[in-house]
Structure formats: C-alpha cells, structure tokens
Amino acid sequence: MAEEEKRTEGQELSKKLVFEIKNVWETIEPAELPEVEHFAESYKEFLNRGKTERECTAYCMNVLKEKGFVSIENSGKIGPGSKIYQNIKGKALVFAIIGTQPIQNGINIVGAHVDSPRIDLKTNPLYEDSGLAFFDTQYYGGIKYYQWTAIPLTMHGVVIRKDGVKQTICIGEDDSDPVFTITDLLPHLADEQLEKKASKVVEGEELDILVGSEPYKDEKAADKVKLNILRLLNEKYGMVEEDFASAEIEFVPAFKARDVGIDRSMIGAYGHDDKCCAFAAFSAALHCAESKPIPEKTVLCLLTDKEEIGSIGNTGSESRFFENFIAFLASKTMDHYTEIDLRLLLSKSAMLSADVNAAYDPTYGSVYDKRTASHFGKGILLTKYTVHGGKFGGSDANAEFCQKVQSILNKNNIRWQYGGMGRVNKGGGGTIALYAANMGIEVLDCGIPVLSMHSPFEVISKIDLYTTYKGYTAFMNDA
Ligand code: MN
Ligand code: MN
In the CATH scheme, what is the homologous superfamily, with its name and number, of domain 118-253? Predict the structure, then answer.
C-alpha cells in the first residue's frame, strides 16, 4: 500500500513547480463554514438595504457612526487609533483608521464603487399616452436593454423641492408597495422585432417605465392619468412637476438578494458589481478598526460613485476628493506638513482596486480565455491589467507589487486566482485603478468573479465573497 501512495518524481516536481488553483470549498476548514454563511447573510442584508449609491453610503455612514468614527469636520486632534470619515455628497464615502506607524510610511487602501448600472429618470420624465402614464428614462452604465423589460422595478432617489426641502424616495422595496415595469412586446406581434439584432430589439429610448392608468376624475382637465400621478406624488412628497429637474431618481430591479442553487453556494442579486467588493472592503476595514493591536499602517477604505460611467464627476474617483482626504489626514498627523509630504506619502501607498470581474461561463466559453479567466469557488481574483485592445486605457500593475500582494495572500493562506476579462480583442472594461495609479499609488485590481455581470440578476459565489473579505483584511493589516 505504502509503495503505491508514494509520489513519482514527476508528481513531486509538479507539486513543486505548478501553480495549482484549488477550490476553496474543498480546502477550507469545516469550522470556518458557519462564518462563510454568516458573512453571506450580512451581505444580503446590506444589498437589500443599499440598492443605490446614496443608500449604500447612508447605510455605511450609520455603521461608522455607531462604531465611533468621526467626520473630518469634528475630528479634533488625530493620532494612532483615530477613526475618521468624510461623506462625499451622500453618494460616496472615504474613511480611515490611523495606524501606529508615521503616515509618511504610506497607507494601505482598498477602494470599491457603490454605483451600479440602472435606469435613471430624465429631467422632464412624466407623460401620458393612450391612457397610460410613463416615466421617460436615460439608462446609466453599460446594460443590455432587453434584459430590463418585463421585470419588476423599484424607484429610489431624492428630490429637492422648490421650497428647498430634500425628500428621499423609495417605492417598491416594502412587500406592500407597488412596483414598476418596462413593457415588452408579446411574441404574437414580435415577428419584426425578433428579426432585429439584440442591441436593437429594445432600444435605449424605449426603456420607459409604466407608472399609472387611472384618470383623475374631472370632465375638463387634460392628461388626467398624468395629473393623477402628479397628485399622488404631491400628496406623498409635496413635489410638483418642475421638481423632477432637481431630482435624482433611479429605477433598479425589485428582486431581493437570494441564495442560488440547490446547494445554496451562490448569491443572486442586483448590484453585485460592485457592492460585493464594497461590502468586503467595508467589513475588512471595520475589522481593522476593532482589532487589537490596531494596524501599523494607516488603513483607508474608499467607496466611490460613478465608476460605471467612467469615474467622472465630483463623487467619482477621478475627482480630487480622495486625494484631499489623504491630504487632510497627513496635515493633521504630521508636524510641518507640506504638499511634497503628501506626494511622497502617496507614492509609498498601496491599494487594491476592489472590483468584480467576469467569471468563466461555460455556456459562452468562446469569448473567455479559460486559463486566465476567474472561476467560481477559486477565491479572490487578481487582475494585473484590465484591457481594451492592446492594453489600452488601464493601469497595468507593476510586477513587484503583484508579487507583494500574492505573498501577503500566500502568507495568510488565502486562496487566489487569476482574473482576466476575456480573450484578446473580445471586448474589455475598466476600473478605478488608473486614477489611484495617477497619484503614484501602487495599485492592483483585486475582487470577486461574477456571472451575468451588469444584468438585473448577477450571481457570485459565497466562498469567493468570504475569501475576498479575508484577503482585503490581510492586505490592510500588512505592515
Ligand atoms: Mn465594477
Ligand atoms: Mn461594472
């Protein structure tokens, strides 16, 4: 028996040389499995309460305040152990735990985005046609239009009324609420529609949302269905039609986050991109805030907006709010602070750009590079570069920094895998990595594989979510 079990020379060599990406479900200690499940449950709760960037920010703000974080405006003196945050216009958030080492040694950053593809309202959206009332919309981010018809949608956002009052809107999340939908054509009359290519089957301008059909009772009034909707909105929110121009109203799928599969190993939900990495990063930073002793390096967590439309705008990561926050920390913790100190500090800092990537889908295998693609269950994924064509438009991480991250993960027994987007010239995508890289920060894309990305119901693996949380925690704690 013993003879048979002995490895051959080739097997020994293979064990030594070949990088074996094992399935985390098969290698995790059984005692840790309840933690995997517990983390997945907390994440589902987070998703259900935070479907938009504003809701996510509000959710995280509440938790930070509970945990004793203070706003930069009220921070007073800052030193090791200080817990500071800045709320960026209610749509993005940056917070830090000051470490025991001088901040000049650099900081450990994990940054994710909390916006997701969705349907926004236009500024003059409400109209009536043939006895039905609709909202006219402008989609946000990269979507396949046809996926957003004939599913229940909910309405979220804010309206700033004429009188200056800010009203928060959320309709459809409570089980007793009504929901909304974008209509689609019945197959019986769709011969012509089905001849079109998929990008034209439903067009962007056709994504109008059905909001009413009951007329206001008055013989002489015009557009009575529309009028009735305005009446109801006025009763509930005190708003008038003009106020749509000073509103941000977003429609998102009504689905709650659910376990997927007979083995319940996956989570299906709207907005995994990038709320799964945001939640993992947020939870890892909170873990650091509560760990004793506190981390040596200063830990920073960035939850940004507008990634899905190119990271622009003053709540997106191309804006200077992120750098300004670090400048604030530096100026409050250093004697004789100058701007050059900030530049040097940034160049010594390290960041994981926490974002999802396309998981290998065997149904559409031909567009993936199977060897470099990420797979469900194989742990946290490292994406050295995101591409369009010949590596255009991305931040190609330095090999030295890739090795540093790999070694942190290896040292902490955290399983990691490669995470490329697809075969060469099959498409591509970007992340926030390049904006951090522009400031001199070492940065690597690092996140969770997703199936059906950017669809109304995306899927991730629970074990990848948990492994990623562990990976971010190890990175933040690295001295
Ligand atoms: Mn993303
Ligand atoms: Mn995306």
Answer: Aminopeptidase i, Domain 2 (2.30.250.10)
Query: pLDDT digit string (tens) for 55-96?
Result: 999 999 999 999 999 999 998 889 999 999 999 999 999 999
Residue 4's pLDDT band, with cuts at 50, 70 and 90, is low
Q: CB–CB of 121/247 below 8 Å? A: yes
pTM tops 0.90, yes or no: yes
Neighbouring-strand partners of residue 420: 373
- CATH 3.40.630.10 for the 11-116+270-477 domain, yes or no: yes
Ligand 1 midpoint to CA 310 (Å): 10
pLDDT in tens, 296-311: 999 999 999 999 999 9
Ion ligand 2 nearby residues (CB, 5 A): 273
Tell me how far the alpha carbon of residue 453 lies from the centroid of ligand 1, in angstroms.
Answer: 9
Distance 205 CA to ligand 1 centre (A): 24
- Residues surrounding ion ligand 1 at CB below 5 Å: 273-274, 355
Domain spans in the chain, listed from the N-terminal domain onward: 11-116+270-477, 118-253
